[in-house]
Amino acid sequence: MTNSPQYEIRVTRSAGIRSYRVALGARMTVLDALFSIQSHQDSSLAFRCACRVGMCGTCAMSINRVPRLACKTRISALDSSVVTLAPLPHLPVIQDLVVSLAPFFEQWKRIKPALRGPGSAELAIVPPDPETSRKRDCITCGICYAACGVKASHADYLGPAAINKAFLRIRDPRDLAGRERLKILNDEWSGVWRCHTQFNCTAVCPKKIDLTGSIGRIKRMSFAS
Amino acid sequence: MNALLRKYAGPFSGMLAHLIQRITGLLLLVYLFLHVRTIYALRDGPQAFDRAVAAFRTPLFHLLEIALLGAVILHALNGVRITLIDLGAGYERQRRLFWIWSVGAGALIFLAGAIPLFLSSMLGR
Question: Domain range spanning residue B24?
Answer without folding.
Answer: 2-121
